[in-house]
Amino acid sequence: MKTLYIDCFAGIAGDMFIGALLNLVPDQKILTDGIRKITALDPEEYELVIEHATKNGIAGINFDVHLTHEHHHDEPHHEHEDHEHEYHHHHHRHLADIEAMITSSTLPERVKVASLRAFSVLAEAEAHVHGTTPDKIHFHEVGAVDSIIDIVGSFILIDALGWPRVLCSNINVGSGTVKCAHGILPVPAPATEHLLHGMPVYSAGSPMERTTPTGALLVKMLADGFGAIPAGKIIASGFGLGNRESEDMPNVLRVLLMDAGNAHEKDGLVHERVTLIECNIDDMNPQDYEPVIERLFAEGGLDVWTENIAMKKSRPGVKLCCLCRNGDAEKLCRAVLEDTTSQGVRLREFDRLRLNWRLEEVSTSLGVIHVKTTELDGETLRRIPEYEDVKALAEHHGKSMHEIRNVILREI
After folding, report:
1. Are residues 83 and 185 in the same domain?
2. Helix ranges restricted to H, 238-325
3. Which residue blocks in 36-163 are alpha helix, DSSP H?
């Protein structure tokens, strides 16, 4: 399985992530040509700077966005003392403005969907911090041209890599304070801290903001799990260089593109970040649940189930639940809303620990069957024949499923 591992030993920022990914793609024009597809961005307004350089003796790519003309404003601008680009208020934008830019672009559909979801999540984080609603948020530094490019550009490059599974290290958030439009605040800044909820973090190195809002956002949107570097073969690697100097820890981000297969899970339990989609329904024909469940599994659901509940006015109801990878959540939410009578869904993110397993095709005296083998610490725990295969063999041989299963378990 193609896996992208993000090593945030010195933190992560949007420009550093793009710089690191540029080491993995065959042509930097993938990014530059992709950004031009955001037709609402005036190409005369910005210049993309991609430079091969070194930071503390480590070679990598420094990515930056230079605004080609500046306008001054009497409001103070937001300054991060770190990787994020300087923000100027002539780029002052609301969520609706950014959504219109992305929607009107000619970007691939999956890049559009991921970008729209990312800005929605960011708006929710900012709204939480400021005690308002997402539609009223002024996006501060992330509303600027450069940070729109950081976020959308990251998804352009992930798309070029074929949307690999993404794993991430624990995240170094840094320490000290950061200067912004709201004054001097502790690291991590409030929006960054809110975005980091549920993720494993720590602080190391000299005081500085090492993880920025955009960096935290990209990890939140992309990472399927957290932990050490997975076992497997390294296909490519690269460093993205930041703009700060830090003698004790280079201001860089490392990414590894790997062919991890399932080998990364053999050393223990698999730690994943997943989304739970659920809704309560009291007015739907029970016969209609089966096609909904089949569609959710077909479109990427990891598990789908129903629970009996009591709803308002003592009405018996059903809670429909779907567990999925974070990147599939929006697609599966649409499926629920399209195929059920629910008017909305609830989303919650969870950490999940599971066993490593593999599906094997095994020849038996009764015929070929698929067997699911689960492992822990490299040892086989159990081998279970797949239900549909057992059912098909039982019908073929005119025997009960119990008889078929016993024969197969003896032979495997």
Report:
1. yes
2. 289-298
3. 95-103, 109-130, 145-160
Give whole-number Cα distances, 412 to 260, 390, 403, 408, in Å: 27, 13, 15, 6
CATH code for the domain in which residue 277 is found: 3.30.70.1380
- Note the residue count of the chain: 412
Asked if 347 and 402 sit in the same domain, the reply is no
203 and 232 share one domain:
yes
Q: Which band of pLDDT confidence, cut at 50, 70 and 90, is reported for residue 142? A: very low
Phi/psi of residue 103, nearest 5 degrees: -65, -35
Q: Say whether both 298 and 153 belong to one domain.
A: no
Q: Across residues 126-137, what is the average pLDDT?
A: 80
Q: Which residues have C-beta within 8 Å of that of residue 114, sequence separation ≥ 6?
A: 155, 158, 221, 327
Q: Residue 369 is encoded by which pair of tokens?
A: 């069957």
pLDDT per residue as tens digits for the range 311-346: 988 899 999 999 998 888 999 999 999 999 999 999
Pairing of strands 165-168, 2-7: parallel
Among 365, 295, 385, CA closest to 334: 295
| DSSP 8-state code for residue 92 | -
Radius of gyration of the chain measured on its C-alpha atoms: 24
State whether 142 and 37 are in the same domain: yes
- The answer to whether the CB of 177 falls within 8 A of the CB of 185 is yes
Cα distance between residue 340 and residue 241, in whole Å? 48
Name the DSSP class of 9.
B
Digit-coded pLDDT (tens) for 91-100: 567 888 899 9
pLDDT bucket at 44, cuts 50 / 70 / 90: confident
- Residue 152, CA distances (Å) to 15, 113, 156, 159, 281 in order: 11, 10, 6, 11, 36
pTM, rounded to two decimals? 0.63
Interval 26-33 mean pLDDT: 96
Of the two residues 263 and 137, the one the predictor is more confident about is: 137
